[in-house]
Amino acid sequence: MSVAGEPRRRKKAASRNLGSKAEVAALGRRVPRRDDEREGFRDANGGEPALPPPEPAALLAWYDRHRRALPWRAKPGAKADPYRVWLSEIMLQQTTVRAVAPYYARFLDRFPTVHDLAAASLDDVLRAWAGLGYYARARNLHAGAQRIVAAHGGRFPDTEDELRALPGIGAYTAAAIAAIAFDRRATPVDGNIERVIARLFAVDEALPAGKPRIRALAAALTPPRRAGDFAQGLMDLGATICTPKTPACILCPWHASCAARRLDRPELYPRKAPKREGAPRRGAAFVVVRHDGCVLLRTRPESGLLGGMSEVPTTVWRHDFAAADALSEAPALSSDGVKWRKLPGVVSHTFTHFPLELIVYVATVAADTPAPDETRWVATPSLAGEALPNVMRKVLAHAAVMNPN
Ligand code: SF4
Predict the structure, then answer these.
(1) Could you list the residue range(s) of the whole structural domain that residue 135 is in?
(2) Domain match, 297 and 262 both
């Protein structure tokens, strides 16, 4: 638990901005004593100077000068809008700032308040979300808006516990909203913050086992005031300075306090356990186009992967998929003499837990062909308004039915 290469931590802390003694102790690093200060933080055995503790005030001062201008962020000194904070935090789960920005603007334009979102249909919400991925987030946002209106009169709850009771809000998101929107002393720990803290304290436990310790270290460092700015400062530091590769330590406000920098090995942290990828799955997708230009689609079940989204009919996606049997699961079209044509190549897509490969069959049928049970015809120009997940956009692009974007 100690910082590599340093003596075990001492009991007293000279930190000005850290919290209680217990919190400082929880930091698990050596903090300087008075005699360290007289000695210029030199170790009693004459070794490397001890590291001074990271000061929250240094990060806040850096944030005040270098904060990123993000569309969902309140201007300096202004009060954050909880609806915008909530929306952005949900959109940013598993998704980059660059990918989220245009969706955030369109979504906010379409649903400017929590009341507008609560009153919308789920289909409309899924359409506005289409392409952003992880669609359970959109369903949870919709359900969350309805809960906030019905149970809280449209006002956001402002404690972590109450926020966690809303659909789709876990520990991270509750802490982020509580800190950023309500300035509560809460500590969200996302990937950027995890990296900064792991490096600052040279946390040797590999992820994911090291997560609780990193969270405890981050929480102990969080100041009682400006907790929202502190969290956003950590996020910005991780995104712009303490980057995964070649961090710009010379520009870091915690340069002098950082254990990984002292070891000259910041890229080693956070340490990670070897990744176990899910077994690949394979299947076939069937793109059926009518002579009048309509495409056959169906809606996935509400629960489970891509729940409630639109798709072309496919086989089941299996580990032991046999391509030779694919047509036995093709949609039962009543049109005479349907000729399936297998396209060259495959469509590849990676979900969180497994990679997927789809072969694609296409067929053209008469304009009066009825849609088989649980499917529907959608005119090609209307495809852009369908809640099509990225994997299905790739399939339709592969079949030259729609543009991939
Ligand atoms: S000194 Fe370098 S490694 Fe340490 S927190 Fe700052 S940027 Fe990250």
Answers:
(1) 56-268
(2) no
Give the residue numbers marked as catalytic.
89
Give the separation between CA 184 and CA 248, rounded to whole angstroms.
30
Tell me the per-residue pLDDT of 252-279, one tens digit each, with 9 for 90 and over.
Answer: 999 999 999 999 999 999 998 876 668 8
- For ligand 1, the distance from its centroid to the CA atom of residue 380, given in whole angstroms, is 51
Which residue reads 């990123």 in tokens?
Answer: 68
Ligand 1 atom closest to the Cα of residue 196 is 5
Question: What is the structure's pLDDT at 352?
Answer: 80
* pTM (2 d.p.): 0.66
Domain boundary pick from 222, 237, 268 = 268
pLDDT, tens digit, for every residue of 124-177? 999 999 888 888 899 999 999 999 999 999 999 999 999 999 998 999 999 999
Q: Which residues line ligand 1 (CB under 6 A)?
A: 196, 199-200, 241-242, 247, 249, 252, 254-255, 258, 260-261, 266
Tell me the residue ranges of DSSP E strands in 176-300.
281-290, 294-299
Contact 200, 257 (CB under 8 A): yes
